[in-house]
Specification:
heterotetramer; A alpha/beta; B mainly alpha; C mainly alpha; D mainly alpha; B: mainly alpha; 12 helices; globular; C: mainly alpha; Helix Hairpins; 3 helices; elongated
Chain lengths: 357, 312, 105, 193
């Protein structure tokens, strides 16, 4: 074993893992996350920061196509692995690391060829990115009012990407409207959920939510663990990683076979929810998020409290909102608020197209 | 001050610069390690050194139609400027380089860092990164003035903008005693400029990593190392400006300075990680409407004390 | 003699900046680009002011004060330029000088 | 007779000067607003470096500081008004190029001729030990009037700029009778007003 190999082994000893969990694979993901936390392997948030792409269970065709595109955005050295329900998590992770050390995957396409040039970029599955590149869909607003004289770039394309068009906005300035699609794999969001949005700067002006695939027939996991998991994701989107870590730990502990650990996890969940409920900073920071100024209705902060109640087993988890109603709430929200609201609402998977009315 | 010879004069420019860079990297490593240990909460801590090695092995990826020149410039700029801010941070009783406007130099390095981070967000031509860039601009604009006034307050009491003079002026009393507000504001604003902890919105989870979302390989290494080195520089600067530098009984100056700097790092990381993200659309208004007047009042108090001859 | 050459070189650079800036300010259509041209002219003045202080009268603060004034002029010009651009843009979606010509008298 | 320090200064001024003029030219040559903005910033930073070489540390870093902030804000304006995130669009937005070039070149020639023909005086005083202190004492003492003028001008700029740029006055925010409890802002700030 020469020095380079050893150095490589040392550097890649704790690879960053991007976990893709199709709807219905929550318990499997919890097992993976518990193992990752135990080993101190970081969880990747975006394909750019990923070493191992781990796909859980059986993704539907829509999500599978999205994962293929995601895979092209992962820098080498990299490895892509599948993990089916019932498989040994620790062994799978060890195998993934070994494959990564052995040089990663052979089919290593040049990202320049896949991403950098030309026409096929615009034809990528529009739902298939991580929020990292622009959707190829033309925004359907008319460009009638736009007169830029010599530099009219309406309908122009640069490198296969459409230019943004202008549209009216809340400040009375005709700012550019950009059509983006967020999902189906976004950190701390339900995987498989796609938000097609029109944005001006970071304000969402048009939103449409959909699922990539029909939902599977899945058994319902323990509601308290589910609530802790949703709370962990919500806290992560809210930018409180330390609290999210505690929520994950409590979730993992509750699923343990060791009764002492279960008791400790219950205490941790109680302490965590008390801390979250009492945090003035969180309340101040989230106040008004996801709720229009003069309208009643549950804002993100109320939902955080609902999840806290569910996480200690005192209440059932809040019901997921219908996608259309949720999408309507996103319009006019700042991107961060929109992300928080969807994470807090945790919409349940529904058959594709069933929610469109 | 008679003995304001710089490290560059004392040891030669190249060795002095190498020492300062080594100190900067070591402290940046310490900041990252502390941060991760606090975040891991007793679990295993992924080592920053291992991360750096892995990122060096990693391919640099690209995105459709990036502004590659500005992107790379931004990534390199973050690291270079973080190191540049170390040029005026005193090690012992000397800094690598000394001008008659050290405090403004530190502030200017931050301002240029601001532009570099914006470029990191702009360059990849991607939505999440650009949103992070917007957020960082708003944030930087709001915290720039509090930071400047906090720095100036220390300079005001010392009657000099030279960091070594500020350290020397605290022989009798540490400045933190008379300017606690400036001390806290300085650290908070520095955290905001390093988009770290509760000020992490430009690279937040809600925008999928924001400015860092498209970075891989060397680029990611440069930006994350730049952030850590800058936080370390801010901690060392806080010690020099408010905590008396290397002053202290029994131990030699450099040891005291190291101890204090590590204490500030630990304090900053623990306090910062206790808090959730301060969402910029709410925090920025507070910065403009509350923090700036409060820091100005702090400067006024110090100015009155100077006139009264309090600082000698 | 020697210092004089340095002064002349620096001043020539300043003249170059003024020339380029004038070209830009006169040739560009966009308000923001015109402002960039003006900024370049002022950049040249800034440099000339600094050189004048160092090479001609370092004992007097006047040249330094001049540089400060130039900096402030730049800031004011930029702030007002942006404000006018927003106002124009809001009222008629125009950010080009030619299109704002009907503002004349 | 070129002394060592003068030679060093000459080299620095020449290199940085070429850099600043080249960046200045690039502003009007590159085909992207973002690059134009940062080319201009490059020009400012090069000039700031020359000022640093001329012992004007304070003015140099203040130039870098102010201009960087200005350019970053300018970048946002450009994206908001004329570009979109997709970036690099070839563009040409010039009019009257020839006339402008003649004026620009003419100004340069006239100025340069003056610079090289004038018999510059030789300085009699030495560079002070602390130029920053010299400037500060002048602004707070003999040149106080300048300081006052700057202050008033900046204050007027803040007011005028805000007035021009904002679309909503207090009647929009608090209703026609100014009786609204809370302003009707699209985003509520952090002070819960």
């Amino acid at each position: 074993m020469d020095l380079t190999t050893r150095l490589r082994a040392w550097a890649l000893a704790r690879p960053r893992v991007l976990v893709v969990d199709p709807p219905g694979s929550d318990p499997l993901r919890w097992a993976v996350e518990e193992e990752l936390d135990r080993r101190g392997w970081p969880r990747a948030a975006v394909p750019a920061g990923t070493d191992v792409l781990l796909v859980l269970g059986e993704p539907g065709p829509g999500l599978a196509a999205a994962v293929d595109v995601l895979w092209t955005q992962v820098p080498a050295p990299r490895h892509r692995a599948r993990l089916l329900a019932g498989a040994e998590v620790a062994a799978a992770l060890d195998a993934a690391r070994a494959a990564l050390l052995a040089g990663g995957d052979a089919d290593r396409p040049d990202p320049e060829a896949l991403l950098g040039s030309g026409e096929e970029d615009g034809d990528e599955d529009p739902g298939a990115d991580d929020g990292s590149d622009e959707d190829a869909d033309e925004p359907d607003g008319d460009h009638g009012g736009m007169d830029h004289g010599g530099m009219d770039h309406g309908g122009m394309e640069v490198a296969g990407l459409p230019m943004a068009q202008t549209g009216p906005d809340r400040d009375g300035l005709e700012l550019d409207v950009l059509a983006v699609s967020l999902g189906p794999v976004l950190p701390a969001w339900p995987t498989g959920l796609v938000l097609r949005a029109e944005v001006q700067g970071d304000v969402v002006t048009g939103a449409e939510l959909s699922w990539t695939d029909d939902p599977p027939q899945a058994a319902d996991p323990d509601p308290q663990r589910l609530a802790l998991d949703r709370l962990a994701r919500l806290l992560e989107v809210a930018g409180w990683p330390a609290a999210a870590r505690d929520a994950r730990r409590a979730r993992d502990g509750l699923g343990s076979a060791d009764p002492d650990r279960v008791v400790a996890a219950g205490a941790l969940a109680a302490a965590l929810t008390r801390r979250v409920r009492r945090s003035r900073t969180l309340a101040w920071s989230l106040r008004g998020a996801g709720r229009p100024a003069d309208e009643p209705g549950e804002g993100v902060l109320d939902l955080v409290r609902d999840w806290c109640a569910a996480a200690t087993g005192d209440a059932p988890p809040p019901a997921g909102a219908p996608l259309d109603a949720l999408a309507g709430r996103l319009e006019g929200a700042e991107l961060g608020s929109a992300r928080l609201l969807v994470a807090a609402r945790a919409p349940a998977p529904v058959p594709v197209g069933a929610d469109r009315g | 001050m008679g003995e304001t010879a710089t490290l560059a004069d004392a040891w030669g420019a190249v060795p002095a610069a190498l020492v300062v860079v080594a100190v900067a990297l070591a402290l940046g490593w310490a900041v990252t390690a502390t941060d991760r240990a606090v975040l891991a909460g007793g679990g295993p801590v992924p080592g920053p050194g291992r991360d750096a090695a892995r990122l060096l092995l990693e391919q640099r990826r690209t995105t459709p139609a990036p502004d590659r020149l500005l992107w790379r410039l931004g990534c390199a700029g973050v690291a270079v400027l973080a190191l540049a801010s170390w040029a005026v941070v005193p090690l012992g009783s000397r800094s690598l380089w000394s001008t008659s406007a050290d405090l403004v130099w530190f502030n200017a390095a931050e301002a240029v860092l601001w532009a570099a981070v914006w470029l990191v967000g702009w360059g990849p031509n991607a939505f999440a990164a650009l949103t992070g860039g917007y957020r960082f601009l708003a944030q930087g604009l709001a915290y720039e003035l509090p930071l400047m006034f906090a720095l100036i307050t220390a300079g005001l009491a010392a009657g000099s903008l030279r960091t070594t003079d500020v350290v020397a002026a605290q022989a009798g009393l540490w400045f933190v005693v008379t300017m606690p507000v400036a001390f806290v504001v300085f650290l908070a604003a520095a955290a905001a400029f390093a988009f770290w902890g509760p000020f992490d919105a430009p690279a937040g989870t809600d925008v999928a990593g924001g400015v860092t979302s498209e970075l891989s390989g060397v680029d990611r290494l440069l930006v994350s190392a730049g952030r850590a080195v800058f936080l370390g520089a801010a901690a060392a600067m806080a010690v020099a400006l408010f905590l008396g530098g290397g002053a202290g009984p029994w131990l030699p100056g450099p040891v005291w300075q190291l101890v204090k700097t590590l204490a500030v790092v630990a304090l900053l990381v623990r306090a910062g990680r206790r808090l959730p993200l301060l969402r910029p659309d709410r925090a920025v208004e507070v910065a403009w409407v509350v923090v700036i007047p409060v820091v100005l009042l702090q400067a006024l108090v110090v100015a009155v004390l100077v006139l009264a001859g309090f600082y000698g | 003699m020697s210092a004089e050459v340095v002064l002349q070189v620096v001043l020539t650079v300043a003249a170059g900046l003024v020339g380029v800036g004038l070209f830009g300010a006169l040739s560009q259509q966009t308000v923001v680009m015109v402002m960039m041209g003006l900024e370049l002219v002022l950049n040249g003045v800034l440099l000339a002011g600094g050189a004048a202080w160092y090479f001609l009268a370092p004992g007097l603060p006047d040249a330094q004060v001049l540089v400060v004034v130039v900096l402030v002029v730049m800031a004011v010009e930029m702030a007002m330029g942006f404000a006018v651009t927003i106002a124009l843009y809001r009222s008629r979606q125009v950010e080009m000088i030619d299109m704002a010509a009907d503002l004349r008298g | 007779m070129l002394t060592a320090s003068t030679g060093w200064l000459l080299a620095a001024a020449a290199v940085l000067g070429v850099l600043s003029v080249a960046s200045g030219v690039a502003v009007f040559v590159v085909d992207s607003m973002a690059r134009a903005t940062f080319a201009l910033l490059g020009s400012f930073l090069a000039v700031a470096a020359v000022l640093l070489a001329l012992d004007l540390a304070y003015l140099a870093v203040v130039t870098a500081l102010m201009m960087t902030i200005e350019m970053a804000i300018m970048a946002v304006f450009m994206i908001a008004f004329m570009m979109n995130p997709a970036g690099l669009v070839p563009m040409s937005m010039v009019h009257n190029t020839r006339g402008s070039a003649v004026v620009g070149a003419g100004a340069f020639v006239v100025l340069t001729a003056g610079i090289w023909l004038v018999d510059w005086p030789v300085r009699r005083t030495a560079v002070p030990a602390d130029p920053t202190r010299q400037l500060g004492e002048a602004l707070m003492g003999s040149h106080m009037l300048v300081m006052l003028g700057i202050g008033v001008a900046l204050f007027a700029t803040i007011l005028a700029g805000t007035l021009l740029a904002t679309a909503r006055g207090r009647y929009d925010r608090f209703g026609p009778d100014l009786t609204a409890h809370r302003p009707a802002d699209p985003v509520r700030g952090g002070l819960a007003r």
